[in-house]
Amino acid sequence: MYRSILCLALLGCASSDDPKTDTGIIETTTSTTTSTTTTETTTETTTGTTTTTGTTTTTGTTTATGTTTTTGTTTTTGTTTSTIVDVDGDGYLNDIDCDDGNFDINPGAIEQCGSGIDEDCNAQTVCDDTCLVEVDFSLCDTLAAAPAPFLDWTYDNVTAGQVLDDSGAAYDGNFNGVPTFAPGLVGDAANFNGTSWISTPAVLPLPPAAWTYVTWARVDNATMNPGAFHFLMTNGNGLPAYSGANMYLANGLTSGAYTESGGNAADETIFGGPDTCEGGWSQIALTFDAGASNVWVNGLPQFTQVAYSDIGWGAQPFAVANDPNNPTRNFVGDLDETQVYDVPLTSTDLEYLRMEALCANVCASPFDVWPDLDQDGYGDVGSVPTQVCAVGPYQSEQAGDCDDGDFDINPDAIEQCDSGIDEDCDPTTNCDDSCLSEIDFSMCDTLVPGPAPFLHWSYDNVTASQVLDDAGSAYDGTFFGAPTFNAGVVGNAAHFDGASWMESATALPLPGDTWTYVTWMRVNSASDNLGAFHFLMTNGNGLPGYSGANMYLANGLTSGAYTESGGNPADETVFSGPDTCEAAWSQVALTFDAGAANVWVDGTPQFTQVAYTDIGWGAQPFAVANDPNNLTRHFVGDLDETQVYDVPLTAYELETLRLQAFCP
Q1: Residue range 102-141, pLDDT digits in tens
Q2: Spatial CA neighbour of 372 closest among 362, 364, 380
Q3: Are 636 and 554 in contact (CB under 8 A)?
Q4: Rounded distance, CA 314 to CA 582, Å?
Q5: Quick check: helix, strand or coil at residue 430?
Q6: In the chain, count of helices (H) and strands (E)?
Q7: How does DSSP assign 94-118, residue by residue?
Q8: Mean pLDDT throughout 434-458?
Q9: SS3 label, residue 349
């Protein structure tokens, strides 16, 4: 009968006889030591394994990476930088040694239960949470079952006034006072406050000479049960002439028991067992076999031989946390998995019960969970996962929450652009990084692709002197100056310094009245493109007589465009679109449809109607970051995913391109 609960710290107390030594860059420490030994001034860098025997004196700077072994006296004057640290010499470097000042604490140490110290540097196997002697969890699948209990209070099944008997014998326990229930070692446990207890309504019909009490107990601190006889379990010591047996804590943490025959105080046999521990669970038991009694704590017995064969169960109900003679000595603390047997359990039986409770925390397929304090369904991305068998409160199987204190911030949240917050915990879709209007990422799976581009410079495919055309039309762009490439919105982007640009080898054979420019752009500062006409894209405005269209930035961040027919300045139509933003990506576009022109920034249009139907592409190559009339007005900043279409894209098609860059 294994119950699945959180594995927590109960996955075992790991031990190892083979310490492992790690090497690599661990930590940098600086120390200065002065010596009168013969001094050599040097600056030395060592990588690898260095072994020195004798006396070494160094004045200067020594940097060592690797494994350094020195036998003898080493004196250093100056600064020593070491990237390898094993201060306590236990064979474990301080990246995995949780106390590098204590030789007995390292990942190869055996956990000492009840010490309050994590000796093996593994929070998953800290026995201090259970106060156990070391447990061999490999035995979980090999233990022989103990006999069935006569009474079994797991404290998992309770009504308004009773704890139900899970053995099926219907020896339910009635509440006296107000015990409470909370997660215990296995399932729930009962908490007693010194004025509450649980008892059967009648005596248990057990044989007088052979029986067992066993339970798990936990007290938060030793002051909770001062003095003698804070009863954990009892079936005797009531009114005179009552016989029975009792299991108690005394003086805080010392376990003990006494048996009584005929209510005669002289007949009592009092003996102490091993101590329980403070703040941790202990399995405690009292076995009786024809006068031979044992008190057990976590498998360790304290044997006392008694001669009373007439100890029986006929006079008192069975009770937990109650001293029937003195209510000021009721037990204060937690009990779990309380059982009574009509046979004396053996040490093997008790070990089975002990392992059964602990193996309940070891499931066949444990899995990771992360703290989910805001209960938004995602665990804290920065926390260490815990292996469990079942998801508990405030836990999630999914990590990824970049703010576990805010329900509205998680990977499923819709990004609120310009909020200054990464709501969806994904920097690649952070609108604040792209200066975008709000994106509805629910559209990502429903987008209908638009027409194919006529030219596509993604800046991901470049040679020594060209950016290749990913549209397959072979309108590659030639470098002028020295553009560079860095991370962009998608893949790489091109960076232009004001003295560099790219252009096609020839003009693009596009129709004069229907076309689209679209690109992603970013400027580090509004001061990078002051004044008018820092061209992002152009196919005109060159020598007199050239017609074309241009997309520009003006006065730092204001987008704009003009169209020209015949090279006549009077024919130019200059208009401004929405502003881009500083130090963030913006999608900018210019569409032209039989004289109707639009400038778009992140899906927001600025409409201007023009009447020039003879705007064409025949005179100038297509270029980016270049003003052919004024070299001082070249664009300074980054461009990515530059495209030209032979049709005017619609608002939906531009939005599709915008989302395609950001959808996961």
Answers
A1: 887 887 765 554 455 677 776 554 444 444 455 566 666 6
A2: 380
A3: no
A4: 88
A5: coil
A6: 2, 37
A7: TTT-S-TT-TT-STTSPP-TTSSS-
A8: 77
A9: helix
Please state, in angstroms and rounded to a whole number, the distance separating the CA atoms of residues 366 and 20.
26
Contacts 24+ apart (CB under 8 A), 49-54: none
How far is 172 from 152, CA to CA, in rounded Å?
A: 9
Dist. CA 366–CA 2, nearest whole Å: 14
Give the span between the Cα atoms of 126 and 13, in whole angstroms: 6
Cα 285 to the center of its chain, rounded Å: 40
Q: Give the span between the Cα atoms of 294 and 191, in whole angstroms.
A: 26
Q: For the segment 313-332, what is each residue's pLDDT rounded down to a tens digit? A: 546 789 999 887 788 889 99
d(CA 66, CA 233): 60
Q: How far is CA 607 from the centre of its chain?
A: 49
Q: How far apart are CA 190 and CA 67, in angstroms?
A: 54
Coil vs helix vs strand at 210: strand
In the numeric block, which tokens belong to residue 117?
A: 């110290």
Residue carrying the six token digits 């580090």: 524
Cβ count near 380 (within 10 Å)? 20
**Residue range 241-281, pLDDT digits in tens:** 556 677 888 887 777 776 666 555 555 666 777 677 677 78
Question: CB of 261 within 8 A of CB of 243?
Answer: yes
Six-digit token pair at 454?
């006529």
Report the phi/psi class of residue 181: left, alpha or beta, with left for phi > 0 and alpha for psi in -120 to 50: beta
Angle formed at CA 286 by CA 280 and CA 292, multiple of 5 degrees: 145
For the CA atoms of 126, 132, 137, 143, what is the dihedral angle to 10 degrees? -170
102: burial class by Cβ within 10 Å (0-12, 13-18, 19+)? middle
Q: What is the mean pLDDT of residues 53-66?
A: 44
**Continuous segment of H or E residues that includes residue 359:** helix 347-359
Beta strand 514-522 with 586-593 is: antiparallel
**Which has the closest alpha carbon to 323: 477, 493, 438, 192?**
192
Please give the structure tokens belonging to residue 437.
């209007």
Find out whether 386 and 355 touch, Cβ atoms under 8 Å: no
- Judge whether 50 and 69 are in contact, CB under 8 Å: yes
Nearest to 276 by CA among 304, 248, 303: 248
Phi-psi region of 103 (alpha: psi -120 to 50; beta: other; left: phi over 0): alpha
Cα-based torsion angle of the residue sequence 19, 22, 28, 33 in order, rounded to the nearest 10 degrees: 50
Cα separation, 575 vs 566, whole angstroms: 19
CA dihedral in degrees (346, 352, 353, 354; nearest 10)?
A: 110
Q: Residue 356 is encoded by which pair of tokens?
A: 């059964």
